[in-house]
User: Which sequence fits this backbone?
């Protein structure tokens, strides 16, 4: 049984495990090895189940745990070309592990992992879609300022999607962030608002997505209640827990998972 485990999901650190108790992959490694290992144990998983790490982009909340993980565990590290060079330049991949460039997709055991470009203020940024041999699928789609045609095409029809719902527009507008930071976050290379996330959630459910996980919520400019309310309001024409399942990822897991 394969599942998606949002181990960490916030601006302070991100790591998503996809797979089962025997083997799987991490999408990003933005927390310490100690915290990652503890989070996996809370989910009934051993860290040795991580066989590969797929990096979305080079920001610290997505890569800062990589040096110790690649030292303690022999894993494959996949990233797009510019990000891979950055990881090498900054000595973030230990020689114990293998680094590989992902051009379009990679195949590991029963998974096909496909990268799709996302618009974000990074050297390169991508999301990942995972297709399993049994026909099930999931995707991690965070850190994007808008939903492009390429993003839309990559995630439509996927059974389980972890989708960014970063900020509430009113909280951002009246919040304490400086103007320049607000503009960066709200730009087309920033993050998805609750409203934008809700619009994409509607398209996803309409095209067959059954499981929605809202992730990468700002702890300063959003709340789980606001993010959830925005999506359920937009999906008012569907019946929750019949037409779709909805979960809001916690900043740090308490053992939550969704079967893919």
Assistant:
């Amino acid at each position: 049984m394969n599942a998606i485990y949002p181990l960490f999901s916030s601006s302070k650190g991100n790591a998503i495990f996809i797979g089962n108790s025997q083997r799987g992959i991490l999408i990003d490694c933005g927390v310490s090895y100690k915290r990652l290992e503890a989070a996996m144990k809370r989910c009934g998983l051993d860290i040795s189940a991580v066989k590969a790490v797929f990096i979305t982009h080079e920001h610290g909340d997505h890569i800062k745990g990589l040096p110790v993980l690649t030292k303690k565990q022999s894993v494959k590290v996949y990233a797009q070309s510019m990000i891979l060079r950055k990881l090498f330049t900054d000595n973030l991949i230990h020689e114990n592990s293998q680094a590989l460039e992902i051009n379009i997709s990679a195949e590991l055991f029963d998974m096909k992992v496909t990268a799709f470009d996302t618009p974000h203020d990074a050297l390169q940024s991508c999301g990942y879609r995972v297709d399993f041999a049994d026909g099930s699928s999931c995707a991690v789609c965070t850190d994007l300022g808008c939903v492009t045609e390429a993003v839309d095409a990559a995630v439509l029809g996927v059974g389980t999607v972890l989708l960014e719902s970063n900020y509430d527009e009113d909280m951002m507008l009246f919040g304490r962030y400086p103007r320049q930071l607000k503009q960066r976050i709200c730009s087309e290379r920033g993050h998805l608002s609750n409203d934008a996330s809700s619009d994409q959630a509607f398209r996803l459910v309409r095209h067959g997505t059954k499981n929605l996980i809202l992730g990468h919520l700002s702890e300063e400019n959003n709340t789980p209640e606001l993010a959830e309310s925005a999506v359920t309001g937009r999906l008012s024409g569907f019946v929750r827990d019949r037409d779709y399942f909805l979960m809001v990822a916690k900043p740090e897991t308490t053992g939550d998972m969704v079967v893919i």
Q: What stands out?
A: The chain has a mean pLDDT of 96. The CA atoms of residues 20 and 89 lie 33 Å apart. The first strand starts at residue 3 and ends at 10.
